[in-house]
Write a structure and sequence with these properties.
This protein is globular. The chain is 76% helix and 0% strand. The protein has 2 domains: 2-37; 59-275, MetI-like (MetI-like fold, Orthogonal Bundle). The protein has helices at 2-37, 42-47, 59-67, 70-101, 105-115, 126-135, 142-165, 170-178, 183-194, 196-212, 215-220, 228-233, 243-275.
Length: 279
């Protein structure tokens, strides 16, 4: 009887694994199609889009590297992502910790007020946000755009940090207070290092979002400042598109966050499991 049950469980597990592999192939196929077409000429893409390239032409990569000034825009996007994630992490951690440890009706109200924007679609307040950013002189430069990302990313960060702080024994902070730590020194020396699991989740989610974001930089950056996502859009014209360059720019733009996610995904899973705490 036990062998029969084990056999059935193994059969079910095999079926689930096959379905997962099939789903992974379906999701990876579009990127594979984009990748193989980066080695083709414009004429080959139009005539044989699903065929493998006859030869590995790297001319498209050389041209795109020069046309969009890839090193400069890579540094711009990296600065925007890093500075934005740093602010979201720092302000989200401090706010989540303070709101969790302060037991009052006002702290509960403020917590709900802080996480409420997560339920609002960005398009509903996009125009208002742009006008406010213009009045605050946050338009047309990367640091100003990072400040806007702070406001958009903090609600989720506060929610995750608030849930994680509930799992931290308050006795640790009481012992530190006896030793003379309080306020910001207690937070940065005792609490923040313990938040490492959920910190990785916050960093990964926001880094992937900000790096790949196209809409917000499009409506807020109109000067010399630009990102890789905006530069990739220049190959799509009104009457014609340079597909060989556009697809190559897509690969060069999406490859860094993909590698970052593959390297950091195990830390994100740990952080999400650690933050799933019932209060």
């Amino acid at each position: 009887m036990i062998r029969i049950i084990r056999g059935r469980n193994q059969a079910k597990l095999f079926v689930v694994e096959m379905l997962v592999i099939l789903a992974a192939c379906l999701f990876l196929y579009p990127f594979f199609l984009v990748f193989i077409n980066t080695f083709k000429s414009y004429a080959d893409i139009l005539t044989n889009v699903v065929d493998l390239p006859k030869s590995l032409l790297i001319d498209n990569y050389i041209q795109v590297w020069e046309l969009i000034e890839y090193p400069e825009l890579f540094l711009n996007t990296l600065f925007l992502t890093a500075f934005s994630v740093l602010g979201i992490w720092l302000f989200g951690a401090m706010a989540g910790y303070k709101l969790c440890r302060t037991k009052s009706k006002w702290s509960s109200f403020l917590f709900i007020l802080c996480i409420a924007p997560m339920m609002l679609p960005f398009q509903s307040f996009m125009i208002t946000l742009t006008q406010l950013a213009k009045q605050l002189h946050l338009i047309n430069h990367l640091p100003g755009l990072s400040v806007v990302y702070w406001g958009l990313g903090c609600p989720l960060a506060i929610f995750l940090f608030h849930g994680f702080v509930k799992s931290i024994p308050i006795e640790l902070e009481e012992c530190a207070a006896i030793d003379g730590l309080s306020g910001l020194p207690l937070f940065f020396k005792i609490v923040l290092p313990i938040m490492k699991p959920v910190t990785s989740t916050v960093v990964i989610l926001n880094a992937m979002w900000i790096w790949n974001d196209f809409l917000l930089p499009l409506i807020m950056l109109h000067g010399s400042a630009s990102t890789l996502q905006l530069a990739s859009y220049k190959f799509f014209g009104m009457y014609s598109s340079e597909w060989q360059y556009a697809l190559t720019a897509v690969v060069l733009t999406t490859l860094p966050p993909m590698l970052f996610f593959l390297f950091m995904q195990k830390y994100m899973i740990r952080g999400m499991m650690a933050g799933a705490v019932k209060g």
